[in-house]
Specification:
The chain is α+β, with helices and mostly antiparallel strands. Helices cover 16% and strands 30% of the residues. The protein contains two helices and seven strands.
């Protein structure tokens, strides 16, 4: 299935990666509020969420970072958030890593909710195709 045709903000599409014992992350779909979820740890879960190979995106001044679809522009995904003067397209995942660089997610629900609120402020004002 083409990533841009997946139901935006659909938890049904994420059923295989949602996990009660997984990492606490924030998922921001295009034109939807960011949502805190627990997802399975690992590369395949992140790829399932963003709909393809992942790309690391730093968020200046924040302790968390984003993963986005590496081929999002090529797949003509819709604009989602604005970071560092650029536009990130498609679904993004916000998470944190430990000192060794391992993705571990947010430590607390409160920390994840703060990241979700911040991501919502970065929402692209015109989520239309390029």
């Amino acid at each position: 299935m083409h990533a841009s045709r997946r139901p935006a903000g659909s938890l049904g599409a994420l059923a295989p990666v949602v996990s009660t014992g997984g990492a606490l992350v924030v998922v921001k779909w295009v034109n939807k509020p960011a949502k805190v979820l627990r997802v399975a740890k690992g590369l395949s879960a992140l790829q399932a969420i963003v709909g393809g190979m992942i790309e690391f995106v730093a968020v200046p001044g924040k302790e968390f970072f984003l993963y986005a679809n590496e081929d999002g522009l090529y797949q003509r995904l819709l604009p989602n958030v604005q970071v560092q003067g650029g536009v990130i397209v498609g679904t993004v995942v916000a998470t944190k890593s430990d000192k060794m660089g391992n993705d571990v997610g947010f430590k607390t629900e409160r920390e994840a909710q703060a990241a979700a609120k911040y991501l919502d402020t970065l929402a692209h004002p015109n989520p239309r195709p390029y």
